[in-house]
Amino acid sequence: MKLVDIAEALDARVTGDGTIEVLRAVHPADAAGPEDLVIAMDKALLPLLATTPARAAVVLEGVLPPTGNVVACVVVKRAATAMAGLTTLFERPIHAEAGIHPTAVVAPDAVVGTGVSLGAFVFVGSRAVIGPGTIVMSHVTIGAEARVGAACLFHPGVRVGERVEIGDRVILHHNASIGADGFSFITPEPGSVETAKATGQVGASNRLLRRINSIGTVILGDDVEVGANSAIDRGTVTATRVGRNSKIDNLVQIGHNVVVGENCMICGLTGIAGSAVIGNRVVLAGRVGVADHQKIGDDAIVMAGSGVATNVPPKAVYGGYPAVPRDRALEQVVNIGRLKSLYAEVAALKARLKSVEPPPEKG
């Protein structure tokens, strides 16, 4: 691939010889020869260009690379955007055999579109529909009446439950579970949780847990991505929904009846309890917990490790446990750090008071 073509794809410009051809994009420390394109958009990596065997590099605007073998640069305006483009240009395609593997089991009344690849030991249930160009890798289960859109990619071990609806270009990573039953149980009479919420004390015992069945489904919009070992539970009666272009990290739990908006980013180890509503373009950082029935407004950000127990307004930044507005959360952290000196000051003040107090009268 020529540098001029790379620059055009990245909306960037070339300095030096734009006809240089490269075979792969690498970290400067991994460059092995003149066919490599080194990515040095981080200023800390620039010194490595002085000794690299590569002839071409990607750098940020306004940066002057050191002299050495590098004779041409692709100059970009924004590192993150350029990285997205570079990894797309140099991505190695998934190895998927065309057609249906002999060990795959496809129900006779399932509909498999043109150009679909079904890997080894795939199961496709009755009346399921798989759109054209979708790649389903080995050991994937697609339940009865599920509907999968076009150009999707399901990695090994994915489980898609019955009646689940998945849009176009959806990526499900290893062992993702879409459409398991929700965690819904009730006691015949008010149990420990209900009495504790009402009075602050446990006033009953859970003698019997009765199952609430999940007769709803899961609906994933177009261009959604779900990370490895994440689980999205089906709704109780309605659907659990994830909006278009939202991205879900590894090890995320999304409970029954949850609604996630469009273009959200939900990071690893996050848990969203049943019936919560997450607005559009929301960012939930790592290990965030969202309590049931809470609402997080559009464009809000919740900081890592936070516990959301109340509604979060749109465009707010919340953090802490329980989560509060960012400034208040940081103030609490600072105040905790001051406690040791405060205790010492109080102890010194008590000592001074004792020294000036008159001795108690003898009766």
Structure commentary:
By secondary structure, this protein is α/β, with parallel strands linked by helices. It has 2 domains: 3-89, MurE/MurF, N-terminal domain (Udp-n-acetylmuramoylalanyl-d-glutamate--2,6- Diaminopimelate Ligase, Chain: A, domain 1, 3-Layer(aba) Sandwich); 99-324, 3 Solenoid (UDP N-Acetylglucosamine Acyltransferase, domain 1), CATH 2.160.10. The strands form 5 sheets. A 12-stranded mixed beta sheet has the order 6-9-12-15-18-23-26-29-32-35-37-38, with helices on one face. A 10-stranded parallel beta sheet has the order 7-10-13-16-19-24-27-30-33-36, with no helix packed on it. The protein has a 9-stranded parallel beta sheet with strand order 8-11-14-17-22-25-28-31-34, with no helix packed on it.
